[in-house]
Amino acid sequence: MKMKLYCMGESGNSYKAALPLELSGLAWEPVWVDFFGGETRSAEFRKNINALGEVPLLIDGDLKLAQSGVIQSYVTEKTGQFGGGNSEERREVQMWVLWDNHKLSSQAGVTRFMMNFLPPEKRPEPVINFMLGRLKGVYAVLNEALKGREWLVGDAPTMADFSCCGYLYYPEPFGFERKEWPEIDRWLGNIAALDGWKHPYDLMPGSPSDRAK
Amino acid sequence: MKMKLYCMGESGNSYKAALPLELSGLAWEPVWVDFFGGETRSAEFRKNINALGEVPLLIDGDLKLAQSGVIQSYVTEKTGQFGGGNSEERREVQMWVLWDNHKLSSQAGVTRFMMNFLPPEKRPEPVINFMLGRLKGVYAVLNEALKGREWLVGDAPTMADFSCCGYLYYPEPFGFERKEWPEIDRWLGNIAALDGWKHPYDLMPGSPSDRAK
Known about the structure:
2 copies of one chain form a homodimer.
Chain A: E1 3-7, H1 12-24, E2 28-32, H2 43-48, E3 57-60, E4 63-66, H3 68-79, H4 87-116, H5 125-145, H6 159-164, H7 182-192, H8 200-203, H9 208-211
Parallel strand pairs in A: 1-2
Antiparallel strand pairs in A: 1-3, 3-4
Helix pairs in contact in A: 1-3, 4-5
């Protein structure tokens, strides 16, 4: 039976799980979650799907896994892929996944939400400007780390790459311009050139254009 | 030789590493970092200590580990402690550590910084209010998860507890009042009752009162 990933196309955190599921060749299918209709915040979702009130969530038989980093570890456990080649690399992968959750995806996600998915009159400009400032320092760390490297860890793609790229392919404005960060730009090209790679809006159901219909 | 943890008392993210180091009985010592004097943002610190420009950082011989969650995993690896009793518990521990980094410590840390460590005239009130609102939802998830439980995972303390409690013992105001969250309050009491437990300001050098001298 296919694994089911509760997700939606607009969620970079979901993409962090969906992309390695897809690239690893595991059998999985997305289950669209109506985040914009309030589904993840409903008592029913918290009771039956995920008590954390968030996507992604993976179901594999009796197993239910929340948090994209946990799902990534599960994919590595099942397939041996994308986890790093030795204990040093495995620690570096874990470091980048944690750093991404702490500094990058968390802040990029909320900034993109406020700038694009709130009605213009509800956008808190001082908060957006604050987050945009913090994110510049975060992109600088990532750009610097990628100098002279094809991948964040070792010489092959890992969950470090799939975590940190979570929000960076989205076309909506959130203060990230690929041309301002040449190393990140090149590295995003490397990931997108992997066999089977898909853009988040092609890999998971749900996108701003669907909601505009 | 003792392991060295680059840290400072005001850093809840450092506490997430220092507390399990201390409780596990490993030989370690803190190395105070002058965060408030700009040390973590200096080119020298990034070059010689941590390219991510942050604390904590652990040095054990030739090994250098960044991100508190990586240091926690290393403590578990070395001592067999606090990692969860089986594969299901290990995944739950990983989930809470990631959730904490994504939702709790990241937002509580920056909010506490803005409310207490910036000069009053530089405090961005709209940003603080936004973060305080988000944090309420985060505390609610944690409080709910602790209902009927002594510990977040299984029936013993784990890195899940030591990660999520990172900022919650600090006395400075940042929108967290123990009495408003009875389950969190009780659980913080459980952690503080562990043999060898220390408050962050007692476990690591550096505190607001030191800087007031």
